[in-house]
Design brief:
heterodimer; A: alpha+beta; Glutaredoxin; four-stranded mixed β-sheet; 7 helices; 4 strands; elongated; B: alpha/beta; Rossmann fold; Ubiquitin-like (UB roll); 42% helix; iron-sulfur (chain B); iron (chain B); NADH dehydrogenase (ubiquinone) activity (chain B); 4 iron, 4 sulfur cluster binding (chain B); Formate dehydrogenase iron-sulfur subunit (chain B)
């Protein structure tokens, strides 16, 4: 998932309108629309709020309520890559808590933090379904089982991020 | 020669994609006649990536295989584990729901049919609606998501409801730590879920289905979407299901990282595009569900078990099990264990046999301290309770629950006060906020446990009282069941709640 910055306001308006109309025929279309917007922009841009409300006949408060309810939806750009580390019980049973603390310290980040160059954001996640090969993490959509520092670094490298969390090209 | 390399996401998390690529390159370099099949996992996760080579009519397993092992593997220099079916962990199982998982190419409808797929749907098409429901009732199938409600009764309520549109909603929002059965079957045998939903649609008179799953499961989402396209193309889904003249179609919807959406009424709100807050019941979703219409909400495993019930008959299924817990349960063995994975077996095996024998004890080699069964809302069981047979009523009698049948094993380094605190913290993070006992109770729970940690023993009765309020006053299982792990930790491991004070003195 590499968020693209909108080239100009006109393109954004058009893209937003396109995403909304592509999902308008669905029953309960709001979440699919928000996912598609986030896939396109890396977050749900404020410019999309008014057209969403108009298309779905909901108030700004209702939309805000939905956006703030779900952990996934972001209102501003986060890192170009996202590292999710599992905090749930199965991972804890094999030292996941200490491993997460160690990796956060190595990256110099706290939960929800982003590296200074904007390459990587770290988020907690509660279960990736990797409970029989815990601890687990996910870099973008690549899963890592039996998580340790070298396995994480390999996964980060594959998306062009150094072990420090900085982008290779940066 | 056929070479099977799983595309299950746990196998991929352990390097299966790299192994498959290395095999492809090596096969090409050597000019071998070999077809590489990406199957689901057989469920023995400690052996992943588990490669199977089918040659001269014999399919042998090798694992775990790394990229570097591939040349030796193709040279025949790696010792085979034998046939999967003969390996003890597998041979001791009764695979009904997961019979095809790992065996077949998940996205080959032809492979699916060769292994018994669609036989159940074909039989259901020839049956009147009430006979379909009776078959499910006779099988004794109960909701595999955790609540254990009889599936046939739920279906009958929807069948009898009068409405212009009814829905089948599959709850694939598998957020419980220690569980992965839903993910595994969606990635390993997606057509069985599609077939089960189609049978539910025919039985209840619903023409539209949704699979609501997690954004944390991108692989399962992709496989399910592809399988639905294939099924639609082959006429299994659509306006005329297998030439029956009856319609059923379905789509996948993806949640957005909210655990509470695994609760059926939250899920329905989320599916409608609202905040995933819990709805008060009644009205039951079976009468007023998705968009206010009659809706079956069933867990993945419940629906994925329906085809085998129809293919082999309800009595065949009901002959397995214990008491009112009929059939089989895919038990997910996770956490600090030697042999982690999915073990499908008839209800009735004791917890101790599962932990010490099947799972082989802890991976760390240290003594087992506690086992959490049923996810973050399930109780911690003490080894003293290991003779409890795996069944709904039997676990209820231990103030525990089997939930979605995930078991997470902890060794003696676990601090149960920390685990109790985590349960409250998790509830506070994931509470939908609708009811006070859950929204406020979870926050106060964390604070109260912190007081106990600091040596304030007077906070223990307060925690007990708070837990009672949460159990009695919460709208759904999140607030209502969070006290299970908290109180079981306090009850069975009191030393972890007092030693802090003694250490301070």
């Amino acid at each position: 998932m590499t968020p693209t910055q909108p080239a100009d306001a006109g393109a954004t308006t058009e893209t937003i309108a396109g995403i909304i109309s592509a999902h308008a025929h669905l029953e309960g279309p709001l979440l699919p629309m928000l996912h598609a917007l986030q896939d396109e922009f890396g977050y749900v841009p404020a410019e999309a709020h008014a057209p969403l409300c108009k298309a779905l006949k909901i108030t700004a408060a209702e939309l805000k309520g939905v956006l703030s309810f779900y952990h996934d939806f972001k209102d501003r750009p986060h890192g170009r890559h996202v590292l999710k580390i599992c905090r749930a019980e199965a991972c804890q049973s094999v030292g996941g808590t200490a491993m997460a603390e160690h990796l956060l310290a190595k990256l110099g980040l706290d939960w929800h933090g982003t590296t200074p160059d904007g390459a990587l954001t770290v988020e907690p996640v509660y279960c990736l379904g990797m409970c029989a090969c815990a601890p687990a993490a996910m870099v973008d959509e690549t899963l890592i089982g039996r998580l340790d520092e070298s396995r994480l670094n390999k996964a980060l490298k594959s998306v062009g991020v150094r072990a420090t969390g900085a982008e290779v090209s940066a | 020669m056929k070479i099977y390399v799983p595309m299950d996401s746990a196998a991929k998390a352990l390097g299966a994609d790299e192994v498959a690529e290395a095999i492809r390159a090596e096969v090409e370099m050597r000019g071998l006649e070999a077809e590489i099949v990406r199957n689901g996992t057989r469920g023995m996760i400690w052996l992943e990536p588990l490669v199977e080579i089918d040659m001269d009519g014999e399919r042998l397993a090798y694992g775990p295989i790394s990229e570097d092992d591939v040349p030796a593997l193709l040279d025949g220099k790696i010792e085979a584990l034998g046939k999967v079916e003969d390996m003890p962990f597998f041979a001791r199982q009764t695979r009904l729901t997961f019979g095809r998982c790992g065996l077949i190419d998940p996205l080959s409808l032809a492979d699916y049919e060769v292994h018994g797929g669609l036989a159940g749907l074909r039989r259901a098409i020839a049956m009147p609606q009430d006979a379909i429901i009776d078959e499910v009732k006779l099988s004794g199938l109960r909701g595999r998501g955790g609540a254990g409600f009889p599936t046939g009764i739920k279906w009958d309520t929807v069948r009898l409801a009068k409405a212009p549109q009814k829905y089948i909603v599959c709850n694939a929002d598998e957020g419980d730590s220690g569980t992965f059965a839903d993910r595994m079957i969606m990635e390993g045998d997606p057509f069985t879920l599609i077939e089960g939903m189609a049978i539910a649609g025919l039985g209840c008179g619903a023409t539209k289905g949704y699979v609501y799953t997690r954004s944390e499961y991108p692989d399962a989402v992709a496989v399910m979407r592809r399988a639905i396209e294939i099924a639609r193309g082959a006429g299994v889904l659509g306006a005329d299901v297998l030439g029956s003249g009856r319609a059923f179609d379905m789509e996948v919807r993806v949640g957005a990282g909210a655990y509470v959406c695994g609760e059926e009424t939250s899920l329905l709100n989320s599916l409608e595009g609202k905040r995933g807050v819990v709805r008060a019941k009644p009205p039951l979703p079976a009468l007023e569900g998705f968009l206010g219409r009659p809706t079956v909400v069933n867990n993945v495993i419940s629906l994925a078990t329906v085809p085998v019930i129809f293919a082999k008959g309800a009595e065949h299924y009901a002959n397995f099990g214990l008491g009112r817990s009929k059939g089989t349960m895919p038990i997910q063995i996770a956490g600090n264990v030697k042999f982690g994975g999915l073990f499908e077996t008839a209800f009735g095996m004791s917890l101790g046999e599962l932990v010490n024998d099947i799972a082989g004890g802890t991976a760390s080699g240290r003594p087992v301290k506690a086992v959490q069964v049923g996810g973050p809302l399930g109780a911690y069981l003490h080894p003293d309770q290991f003779d409890t047979p795996f069944g709904y009523e039997e676990f209820d009698g231990q103030k525990a629950l089997i939930g979605h049948a995930g078991i997470v094993v902890f060794d003696d380094t676990a601090d149960m006060l920390s685990m109790a605190r985590f349960a409250m913290e998790f509830c506070a993070v994931e509470s939908c906020g609708k009811c006070t006992p859950c929204r406020i109770g979870a926050v106060r729970g964390v604070e109260t446990i912190d007081r106990i940690k600091e040596g304030d023993e007077s906070a223990i009765p307060l925690l007990t009282d708070l837990c009672e309020t949460m159990v009695d006053g919460s709208l759904c299982a999140l607030g209502g069941f969070t006290p299970y792990p908290v109180m079981s930790a306090l009850r069975h491991f009191p030393e972890d709640f007092t030693s802090q004070k003694e250490a301070a003195e």
